[in-house]
Amino acid sequence: MEQKTKLHEKLVLLLVMLFFYLPIIYVVIFSFNSSKSLSSFTGFSLQWYEKMFANRTIMESIWYTVSCAVIATVVSTIVGTVTAIGLSKSNKALREAINQVNNLPMLNPDIVTAIGFMLFFTSLRIKTGFTTMVLAHIAFCIPYVILSVMPKLRTLDPNLAEAALDLGCTPLQALVKVIIPQIMPGIISGALIAFSMSFDDFVISLFTTGPGVNNISIYVYANVKRVNPTINALSAIIVYVITIVLILVNVVPLIRERKMKKNEN
Questions:
Q1: 3-state secondary structure the chain
Q2: What's the pLDDT at 66?
Q3: Is domain 56-233 annotated with CATH 1.10.3720.10?
Q4: What parts of the chain have a pLDDT lower than 70?
């Protein structure tokens, strides 16, 4: 009976893994297809990668996407971290009120947030474009950073900053040399979530950008109804980059741990 249960669990896990990863594998395989067909593999070719890199529109969409994601990540991480630290030192009533407000953008449907930003920029007569898209991305990324940093701050000794000040640190030194190193995992986690959310965003970007400024998701949406294998190549490259980053993030700490153990021995 136990063996049947374990076999059933493994089968379910296998089906779930296939459901998640088969579409990705399919896209990667057909990015090397020699023809435009998306149903039959006719031969190996790198022509769609070559055409992708030669396509100025795709290159511009990649530039806008990465630039927006990097700027939004840096700004939202700094603002979100400082805000979280400030909230940790505030009274409970204010902290709870701000936390509730902070949760609203995450609970709001993207379409509501997008329309809100669009109406806001329109009412102020701000011309939509790259700047407005970046501002919108910063705004919806900050809550995720705060949410990631706050749990780490709760685990800190509340007297840690005061101890640093008693030992001669200035408030800035106490923040940079004592508090931030202790909450660095939460900051990194928040930054990664912010980058992922900005890089992946479509709805808010569509409503807050202007003519000639398209990120990857908008470009893909505009070309999804046409047979365009260069999108497969673009998607495959994103998969490669994410895979490499995940390997580095997981492997590098293991290598460091092994080196530290060897040094200790």
A1: CHHHHHHHHHHHHHHHHHHHHHHHHHHHHHCCECCCCCCCCCCECCHHHHHHHHCHHHHHHHHHHHHHHHHHHHHHHHHHHHHHHHHHCCCHHHHHHHHHHHHHHHHCCHHHHHHHHHHHHHHCCCCCCHHHHHHHHHHHHHHHHHHHHHHHHHHCCCCHHHHHHHCCCCHHHHHHHHHHHHCHHHHHHHHHHHHHHHHHCCHHHHHHCCCCCCCHHHHHHHHCCCCCCHHHHHHHHHHHHHHHHHHHHHHHHHHHHHHHHHHHC
A2: 92
A3: yes
A4: 1-4, 227, 265
